[in-house]
Amino acid sequence: xxxxxxxxxxxxxxxLEQFLPSVVQYSPExxxxxxxxxxxxxxxxxxxxxxxxxxxIENKENSGFAGGYNQALKEVEADIYALVNSDIEVTENxxxxxxxxxxxxxxxxxxxxxxxxxxxxxxx
Length: 124
Fold this sequence. Notes:
Number of helices: 4
Helix content: 25-40%
Radius of gyration: 14 Å
Structural class: alpha/beta
Mean pLDDT: 93
Shape: globular
Strand content: 15-25%
Low-confidence stretches: none
Strand order of the largest sheet: 3-2-1-4
Largest sheet: 4 strands, parallel
């Protein structure tokens, strides 16, 4: 199964700098995309110079959260789409249970993880 991790970004250069490294490091089985929602900061240049393996989709306008993802997903081909926010830190093997669930339970359409508080990892 082909999996794509898609991150919507709008003027989030600092968030990408902080959180994208974990996604790149811990997602070897995925293609990683950042869908830029018409940012006016240095996000695109930052991505292209610091994360050459990440594919950048440049939305022509900021269509909001759902509109931005809908616009970008038209350009991504995968069996599974992992839509994550730009302020998400992932851990090693985070995609393995997702892939296993979709492989073992073909009727599965969506999965929502438990998310730990970034500042207090004991709180969901």
